[in-house]
Design goal:
The protein is built from ten helices and four strands, in the order ααββααβααβαααα. With about 200 residues, it is mainly alpha-helical. Strands 1-2 form a two-stranded antiparallel ribbon. A two-stranded parallel sheet has the order 3-4.
Length: about 200
């Protein structure tokens, strides 16, 4: 896409993220309090992800796991590491709300391939060479298709193997579909579809 699209997309990201952060500030404050009261530890979870140009950035989420819990990078439904508040946050994708800050500062976009940890990016270097030419996003075709990813992984005794062998390759195809169809119209449709899914 040309510079005109990139400027318009960035303008949409900045305006929408500011508006959402202001409008959702009371909700986010309440969620932060719930996380703090539910289990000891910080309110926010921070993790390094691969960004545009394969430059790492720190993604923000409301913490949904117990501090010190170890295990696979992927999370299946009923994972014992997840707190009570975390189950609620994950069910409605509320743990992702702090990423509006990532959008505002330019680490992410509202729409784009979901950011992945470097460990998984290295498994598919050729596919990610194209994917990482754009900012990662809050939502895209893959995010909608795999909204219940945790339930899919729960059925396997080895969720991480299923993720790397089945789920992530399927997501990568959808990431490339987004890159093929990338436009402001596509972005608006994906945002509206995401809002509709979350409000069900």
């Amino acid at each position: 896409m040309g510079p005109g699209y990139n400027r318009a997309k960035r303008a949409m990201d900045v305006i929408a993220s500011i508006a959402a952060l202001v409008a959702l500030a009371p909700v986010m404050a309440a969620l932060a309090l719930a996380v703090k009261l539910d289990s000891p530890g910080p309110v926010l979870f921070r993790q390094q992800r691969a960004g545009r140009g394969n430059r790492p950035f720190t993604i923000l989420k409301f913490r949904s796991m117990r501090i010190g819990a170890t295990g696979p990078l992927v999370t299946a439904a009923q994972d014992a590491r997840v707190t009570r508040a975390g189950r609620f946050l994950r069910r409605y994708k509320l743990d992702e709300l702090p990423q509006l800050w990532n959008v505002l500062v330019g680490d992410m976009s509202l729409v784009g391939p979901r950011p992945e940890v470097e460990r998984y990016v290295r498994l598919f270097p050729e596919a990610y060479e194209r994917i990482l030419t754009v900012r990662p996003g809050l939502t895209d075709f893959a995010a909608l298709e795999y909204r219940d990813e945790q339930a899919t992984l729960q059925a396997s005794p080895d969720p991480e193997s299923v993720y790397t062998a089945v789920v992530l390759p399927a997501k990568i195809e959808l990431y490339h579909l987004y890159l093929d169809e990338m436009s402001l119209g596509t972005d608006v449709v994906l945002v509206l579809r995401t809002i509709a899914v979350l409000l069900r």
